[in-house]
């Protein structure tokens, strides 16, 4: 639902959306990358990263000579790469580049992808991967603490702020930790009830 307004009252919050209004004692915001452009920007010193995986015309058996499901390698620069079967090819991930909040979110520039493939090339024993080998680029925008040469510094579930009594603002990056973050927030909300 589209939230129009959340107003702090004496002992509760008034929540107004397009089609309803209700009162609640707690509010949880989890805006992800959109927190950098709204009122929560003051709570989080957040940067944005464009994260992407490149799916190429390759076969895992060409790499591993077995039925292995996936492989991870660390580059000399400290970047972690993975190779996993993805539909009709193999996904190589994950590339990151810092972007500004004012930029239009779109897939990474082809030169960025080319550099990413060159760096990953030293870790796999395939013939050179060209731009023509790309089936698709899967991408998304993530909030990050900082960008380093080895990749982004992610938020963890530890960044949950009670910005006002009963108002919890959550900043997290990884999908793999959403359930533990949700449980942590749930405990905080229940303690306030």
Structure description:
It is built from three helices and twelve strands; from the N terminus they run E-E-E-E-E-H-E-E-E-H-E-E-E-E-H. It has 193 residues and is an alpha+beta fold. The strands form three sheets. It has a six-stranded antiparallel beta sheet, covered by helices on one side. Strands 1-2-3 form a three-stranded antiparallel beta sheet, with no helix packed on it. Strands 4-12-11 form a three-stranded mixed beta sheet, with helices on one face. A hairpin with a 3-residue loop joins strand 2 and strand 3. The longest helix is centred in the C-terminal third of the chain and has 15 residues. The chain is elongated and about 65 Å long.
Radius of gyration: 21 Å
End-to-end Cα distance: 24 Å
Structural shape? elongated
Average per-residue pLDDT, rounded, comes to 81
Structural class: alpha+beta
Work out the oligomeric state of the chains in this entry: single chain
> What is the count of helical runs?
3
How much helix is in the residues?
A: 10-25%
Residue runs with pLDDT of under 50 for 5 or more positions: none
């Amino acid at each position: 639902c589209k939230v129009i307004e959340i107003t702090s009252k004496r002992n509760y919050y008034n929540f107004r959306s397009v089609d309803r209004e209700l009162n609640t004692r707690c509010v949880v915001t989890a805006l992800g990358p959109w927190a950098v452009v709204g009122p929560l920007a003051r709570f989080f010193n957040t940067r944005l990263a464009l994260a992407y995986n490149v799916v190429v015309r390759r076969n895992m058996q060409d790499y591993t000579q077995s039925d292995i499901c996936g492989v991870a390698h660390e580059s000399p620069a400290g970047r972690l790469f993975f190779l996993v079967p993805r539909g009709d090819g193999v996904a190589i991930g994950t590339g990151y580049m810092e972007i500004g909040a004012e930029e239009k979110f779109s897939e990474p520039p082809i030169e960025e992808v080319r550099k990413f493939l060159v760096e990953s090339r030293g870790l796999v024993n395939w013939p050179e991967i060209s731009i023509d080998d790309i089936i698709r680029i899967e991408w998304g925008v993530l909030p990050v603490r900082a960008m380093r040469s080895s990749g982004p510094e992610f938020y963890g579930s530890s960044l949950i702020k009670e910005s006002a009594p009963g108002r919890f603002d959550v900043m997290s990056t990884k999908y793999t930790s959403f359930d533990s973050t949700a449980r942590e927030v749930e405990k905080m909300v229940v303690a306030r009830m």
